[in-house]
């Protein structure tokens, strides 16, 4: 089965063609990072307009690289939730138009389910059940994956996402946008113990996160030093922040897996590319005898391949829709898009 999938939930215009879900024939990504870097973050209106400008060419290139004709496609899919609503509508409406033109099913896909499916793309042997961490600029969530389309949230952030904290602290350190990657690079040579930063917990909810206090503490530390004419060591602060995030995330993910009796863990999303988080998660999983599946960095960020893969399993579960399908800025990963 050949599926063309579109991803446009934020600032990447992406398209991919998959065969039977896990065989990726093409994966094309157009990034808007350079444009949004001028503003220090994603501007939703600009993102939507740029998606509209690029999506036709990106989709056509995905079909070309796959070595197929448009008429060979058996279905078209798109991310329909969650994300920037204007950006989502561009990808979804393009995909719905393609499905009508080709007279093939339209498959709406949940963005978080797509991130989880990045593990399927990278590891053919990975099958549910398992525990998944999805951590990015907009999400930090632990999910019990019982089946390909049956998932339950075990823990989530109560305020900022981990990636949002990285980006805002990176801005204070005058790092290029997005701040997470640059901060990770600085942290490699920093002293994590020089600056003391909090590791928050939520009373009564052991798997939930809170990164607002960490973000505020790091920002205040930098601002206070500047007001006193003191120098902040960016490498040391970056290391302190990266370790604080990893210390908040890694034990909870492993504890959640053990609570559910899962022997496998996967992690995805842009924050899952952080080298310190990956190292600590690898070490703790080895200690606890848990299999860890970390997708390559190329599949951690937003991409079409993860949507194309998840679309196959949504199709197999009967989760197809039509041109009336809407998009949603927020939606739980456990909810079904079809019929909403």
Describe the structure.
The protein is 44% helix and 19% strand. The chain is α/β, with parallel strands linked by helices and 340 residues long. The chain has 2 domains: 2-116 and 302-316, Nucleotidyltransferase, domain 5 (2-Layer Sandwich); 128-294, Nucleotidyltransferase, domain 5, CATH 3.30.420.40. The longest helix has 27 residues, at 234-260. The two termini are 26 Å apart. The mean pLDDT is 94.
Give me a quick take on this structure.
The protein has 340 residues and is an alpha/beta fold. The chain is built from ten helices and ten strands.
What is the fold's blueprint, element by element?
Elements: E1 2-7, E2 12-19, E3 23-31, H1 33-37, H2 44-66, E4 75-81, H3 85-102, E5 106-110, H4 111-122, E6 130-135, E7 140-147, E8 150-156, H5 162-172, H6 179-187, H7 212-227, H8 234-260, E9 264-268, H9 275-288, E10 291-293, H10 304-316
Parallel strand pairs: 1-4, 4-5, 6-9, 9-10
Antiparallel strand pairs: 1-2, 2-3, 6-7, 7-8
């Amino acid at each position: 089965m050949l599926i063309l999938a579109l991803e446009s939930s934020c600032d990447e215009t992406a398209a991919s063609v998959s065969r039977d879900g896990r065989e990726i024939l093409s994966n094309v990504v157009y990034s808007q990072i350079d444009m949004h870097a001028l503003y220090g973050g994603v501007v939703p209106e600009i993102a939507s307009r740029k998606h509209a400008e690029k999506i036709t060419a990106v989709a056509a290139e995905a079909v070309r690289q796959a070595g197929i004709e448009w008429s060979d496609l058996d279905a078209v899919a798109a991310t329909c939730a969650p994300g920037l609503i204007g950006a989502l509508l561009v990808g979804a409406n393009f995909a719905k138009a393609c499905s009508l033109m080709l007279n093939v099913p339209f498959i709406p896909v949940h963005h978080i389910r797509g991130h989880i499916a990045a593990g399927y793309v990278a590891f053919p042997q990975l099958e549910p059940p398992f525990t998944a961490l999805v951590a990015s600029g907009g999400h930090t969530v632990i999910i019990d994956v019982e089946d390909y389309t049956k998932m339950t949230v075990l823990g989530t952030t109560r305020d900022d996402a981990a990636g949002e904290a990285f980006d805002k602290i990176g801005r204070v350190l005058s790092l290029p946008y997005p701040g997470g990657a640059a901060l990770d690079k600085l942290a490699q040579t920093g002293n994590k113990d020089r600056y003391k930063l909090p590791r928050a917990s939520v009373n009564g909810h052991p798997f939930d996160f809170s990164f607002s206090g960490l973000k505020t503490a790091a920002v205040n530390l930098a601002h206070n030093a500047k007001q006193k004419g003191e120098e902040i060591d960016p490498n040391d602060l970056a290391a302190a922040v990266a370790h604080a995030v990893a210390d908040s995330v890694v034990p909870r993910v492993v504890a959640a897996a053990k609570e559910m009796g899962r022997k496998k863990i996967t992690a995805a999303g842009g924050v899952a590319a952080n080298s310190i988080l990956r190292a600590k998660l690898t070490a703790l999983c080895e200690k606890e005898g848990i299999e860890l599946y970390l997708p390559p960095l190329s599949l951690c960020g937003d991409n079409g391949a993860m949507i194309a893969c998840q679309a196959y399993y949504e199709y197999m579960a009967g989760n197809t829709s039509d041109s009336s399908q809407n998009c949603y800025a927020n939606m739980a990963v456990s909810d079904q898009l079809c019929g909403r």
